[in-house]
Specification:
668 residues, alpha/beta, seven-stranded parallel beta sheet, six-stranded parallel beta sheet, 22 helices, 22 strands, globular
Length: 668
Amino acid sequence: MECKTCQKQLFAVNVLVFYKQEENQIHLSLKPESRSAVEHQSLTYSKGKKFTNVNCKYCSKAIGKELPYGPNGAPFVAFGIDKVVLLNRQLPPRSIWRTSMDCFPEVKVRSANQFFGTPFVFPPASKDKGLANPIQFADPKNVDNFSWYMPENSKVPRDYQIQCYVESLLRDLVVVIPTGAGKTLVGTMLMRKMRQLNPDHLVLFVVDRVPLVFQQAEAIEIDSGLKICRMCGETKSPGMIQRLQGGAFDGLVCTAGALINSLRRGTLNMTEFSCIVIDECHHASGGHAFSDILGMVRSCPEQLRPRILGLTASLVPNNKSHTVSLPKILKNLEPAVIYRPCLSYKHERKESLVTLKIPDEIRSYIQDAQIQFNLFIQQIQAYRKEFQMLSDSNTHIVKGQLRAVKDNIFNDSYAAYGFKSEEIEGLFGLLGSIEICRDISIPEAVAMLSTTNASVLPGVQDLIVRYQNYQNISPKMMELSKHIQNYNGSKVIVFVNTRELCRKLWRHLSKEFPELNPLVVVGYMGDDGMGWEEQQKNISEEFKRGDSHLIISTSILEGTDVPDCGLVIRFSNCFTIIQNIQSKGRARQANSQYVVFAYEDEECRFEELQKNEKQLDEMLKVLCSENGLPSPKACDIIQELINIDQSLSVTALKKKQKRKEEDLTTFS
């Protein structure tokens, strides 16, 4: 293996190994038995922003990272595929080891349990940890099984949260309530009670993304007093599984992928859990891991089958017809029934749509760029007829098609058709410049063409020359500046659709509003991603403290808990109902504002999305009525418990919350 920058040989192939961390996570690494003997001959280490950098000793260029969560929790080196040359074989830009490792049969492959040379033998799932004991569910005849006493430092539940909690003890349930209305607390209350009823079973909370593992685990521990194990691809190890099954924890918060992997390998068994809470359960459609998990729950013997609680702000994850997609999701969520409670409060939020007209110069650039883009797409269509031509309304679809080409060009027929990886990367650059032109300015769009592979495409150089002297700023940028200048509140969130736009917008707003200390939040995956513990959590805390008053974020923030704010701007148009619901759910302060920017050609799409959201809401009301929810039995149980102990009443809980707030004010 050589350094790609200085071409110095670093290691012989016999000290290298492909580490198969997960099915879709492959790393080129050093064999652990060889690392200590060879690493200092060719490597140096330096502190990185997210992980430790691994550098070439000869030229000091970064060639990889030291990742902290390998097998058994041990750190391991991961070499970047674009930073090294392996066996003198050049790979296309943006290649990944997962799709390229078959080109290097000389390098051995080791899974997590073989990484240290000898396979780790997993202990059988403990018999005394729930496998032989039926799950004890709440007995409707014993109201004490339903009480909701919470730890002193926990959040105080509202009446609808109590109703959801009691309903979830009576049956498998999917709770649909808006972002910011306290879905996680409902799941926490169920987990706490099921752990009390079943001390020999664990409780389980499943999330869709790695950052949510750490965030939700922390919230559950605070509000329940339970000791929670955090598990994802980075933290999972045989030692962790042993501690989990050995009684060191009350429950587990994990990603769907890590759970599926452990269940399929037999290191965990679904019958070890008394309940499973699925966060953002609207993903349970198609081939998503949530669907597989629910299938495994349904296959458990009835007396060992965990209670299911799904949590979501909207049951339809995309903007497809809800009359088509909703029945499919409901089938995947069986046997759970839908409950959309009536909230006891309503945010006094002002919602507005700002419709803007695209200037002629910006429209001209977009049309010229689309023509150049579609000329290349026509060549692809000669071999793949399903490819769509680019228009104003299908950018996200075309981008998805391009990703499929990029992921497969090295070992697929695209290369045989004569397409080069640089050309596919160039199409991404050209597509990005169109978005930047619409949302920021023509100069930014031209600069993007010049600094990406877009310049290798025919006609792009002419496009650069034609527009290099234009200075037009987009109406969205001007409107954004005006809204932020006129806002007198403390906190603002701006939502966009791509990382590139997010970071360019941050550079502009940092210059224009330095007093707001703008911060960026983007997703976890990729080389430019942001981890929860290292970055996203710190940004959320800065925002909460008031050290920053403005966040520019991709949709990753929509599933993450951030402090309430008074102004939320949807800078990029929403593509789905769930995007719109989760975005406006961030405007939770009294008299807050939710503002959507849309060009004239986007206005109809947004109005249709709002119409679909209202129709879906009506469908959910009908479903609740058909399911008999709220159930008379749950209402009777709640009233009987309040009659026994008035401290459980909503009025008493509100007084408790007020006292807590007064105490916080006194000590702050």
